[in-house]
Fold these 2 entries.
Entry 1:
Amino acid sequence: MTTRLTLLAAACALTLSACGGSSAPDTPDAAPSAAAPAPTGAPAAAPAPDTAPPAMAPAAAPAAMAPAADGGTPANGKPAAEVSDCGTTIEGTDAMQYSVSSIAVPASCKDFKITLKHTGKLPAAAMGHDVVISKAADMEAVDADGRAAGAEAGYVKAGDARVVAHTKLIGGGETTSMTFPVDKIKDGGPYVFFCSFPGHSALMKGSITVQ
Ligand code: CO
């Protein structure tokens, strides 16, 4: 009796090993074909970091984060500006970001002062920041005209009537400010503030309201 059971067990084992043996060749075949695309993709991506200038590195980081930010809240998860004495200080970084997503101007203020502090290290030519205020509906056109006006113009077209107010363009370590009449943004909104350095308004923009 014991011998028969042992033989049955041995037969089962042979069957299992036969099955395992037949499936085994499939796995090695599949593995190389699946892995094949990876080596071709890797060399193409590898040269990019080597050839990219240092200034591109900070810009690449926010670009990679953009889908997540766009998919999230319109405020990009940043806080509202802290306002006191009819003014506020906001920051701009080497990662192409403002520190705030919105500015609420008290209706009781006659004039309002915005101070921009560039907390980065990159020069204005590579990572310049300013604050330009316009109607939200005008932002794209103001931005495009500013880009066309060029660096000498601080990327703001001279005499642009759609521009409510703007600071000068600054680089890392610099601070600038502007003061404008609150009446200018009380009607006809919504208004926005944005950076007119080419490409920056995609990430560097926020809403400015009178409350
Ligand atoms: Co900027």
Entry 2:
Amino acid sequence: MQSSYNPWLVAMSFVVATLASYTALDLTGRIYVLASPRLRHVWRMGGALALGVGIWSMHFVAMLAFSLPIPLGYDFAETAYSLTLAIGASYLALCLTTHTQLTAVRLVGGGAFMGLGIAGMHYSGMAALRMSPASAISRRGSRPRSPLRSAPPAPRCGWRALSNDDARYVLRKRFGAALVMAIAISGMHYAAMAAAEFAPGAICGAAAGVNAAWLATSVILFTFAILIVTLLLSRFDARTSFLVGAVSRLNGQIVRLATLDTLTGLPNRATLTERIERAIHAARRQRSLFAILFMDLDGFKTINDSLGHSAGDQVLSAFAQRLLICVRTGDTVARLGGDEFVVLSENLASRTDAAALAEGVLERMRRDTWADSQPLQVMPSIGIALFPEDGDSVDTLLKHADAAMYEAKRAGRSTYRFFEQRMNEAATRTLQIQNALREALAERHFTLHFQPKFDGKSETLAGAEALIRLHHPQLGTLAPLEFIPIAERSGQIVQIGCWVLREACRQIRRWVAQGLPPIKVAINLSPRQLLQAGLVPTMLDIVNAEGVRCEQIMFEITETVAMQDAARTIEMLREFQASGFEIAIDDFGTGYSSLAYLQRFRVKQLKIDRFFTNGLDAHGEEGSAIVSAIIALAHSLEMDVVAEGVETESQLHMLKAMRCDEMQGFLLGKPLTAEAFGDLLRGRTLTADAC
Ligand code: C2E
Ligand code: MG
Ligand code: MG
């Protein structure tokens, strides 16, 4: 029998197939990212309905486009069955392809279901024509074609198009894939139809059924409505989910910011406070013991200043990670800020447990090297406060653990200390000094004292060392050994150091203005100042601004600091020397000098620490052997030697006998105020004149 097609309806069937495919792809992408299983299920059902109706209606519209010279109609039950088949297959395919773990097997399975479903729907749809005789829909005699032979494009394309890899929510890609899928579905249909033969004289048993034109219009409209509504809902839902997701992500971030430290991801101060409060309640109820371990990294500021902030951050993160390994399960490790960390360890049997924990941390940190490019060892000083004996509130416990930590620092660092009541006073004193330092520069609480240095042979005045003092209205006069380490920690030493140099220069000029002879003044530099970028130019600017010649200033660097990073020291010494400043190595004998470096420093003076000067009396022959060896060594390296802390006549005699170049000590002259030192200078000048 001769068959023909209505081209408009054929075109329409293709549009329906494309839209259905697009909807299917959109839904797979949509369902794939949904987190809630319930929502996934609802969307799978809705999606299966839309896709099933879409595919079925493509087929049905294509069937309606088809005409034979006999009246045609469709059996309702068979038609409904083919629709159910399409929806069922779509559901199974969606279930497989929208699984959270999209494996190749699932994709192939989904494609196969889709392909079989489409083929099944097609043939059951055709059966709805109820052609009689039954063989009316026959295979072409000469070239028999299996219905399945026309089917393969559908599953293959379904497999490709449903892949979430390709359809990455890019509209163009998705539309392209939908077109391919539509060609596959339509291709399958028209190929299957071409494979069908309608025997002459056959009649359609369902011709009395539903009117074809009416059916075509309503099926197309109905399908479009379903597909478009589904698409719109999917878009709307995607937007809502996006907003909900964004809001919940933002909420998560806010919570993280409020409770966690951003650098290390550890609980922050607020969270720690809350946990200590809870620990206090629990320990009261259970009558148990807990410990707060307060840690501060030794020399962290040096690392930060010399290697830069990103290296500092790396060290902090690495320290945090290692600390987490050291603690027991259930312990809280928090970062208070800067280089301060706290461990809260609950349910301890005794204080020995806390000591063991601290020892474990120190041991672990001693073993590890840090920061990938630089082998660095970063050790903490640890202070321990116990509940209930050391305090019953968060503030007191933290304050006492902090005080114990300071004690550990004073005891030589990289160690731990339990809190003791006497530390409270030390902590209060530290706090008072911190406050005093804050206002000292502005309120002019600092003064400089000058200690004379004398020539070893002639005992004439050779120079002076500037020594800072802090006079506080309440605290009285403070010695530098007490406040310099605190100013070092807070970084205030940099400003204070500039003040010292400026004030020393001004004093030199004042003395000159009084007609006194020019005198060379030694200025102490602290470790923190040495790390300051552009230290030499800054110092040079001050000296120039005050109108003093560089040759009148000598800088003292302690041996320990000079040897810490000897290569850097050499570089800086060259810079100082190039500007015309002289350098002395202070407190020699207290550090571990490498002779090779000492030679390369090429400094003007070596100042023997007063411990060795004292040893001349206290340690007999051994004491004098050491001092004479140091003097001989310095002379062989062409350095002058200054003995510090000369307190007795016998020391003076021995040093003279050993050809010590200069002497400094209470015996010859204590540190004096600027006026008193001026008087000393004046007296010396007068004596010299009289001679
Ligand atoms: P230093 O540089 O070794 O200074 C010598 C210290 O020994 C001074 O203590 C001085 O008073 C003391 N001294 C001198 N002769 C004798 C003696 O015969 N017997 C005894 N027992 N002590 C003597 P001072 O002034 O307390 O300074 C202590 C340290 O503080 C200084 O040691 C220095 O390292 C530091 N310092 C002082 N002034 C400054 C400053 O302006 N800047 C920096 N960065 N540090 C300073
Ligand atoms: Mg000194
Ligand atoms: Mg000294």
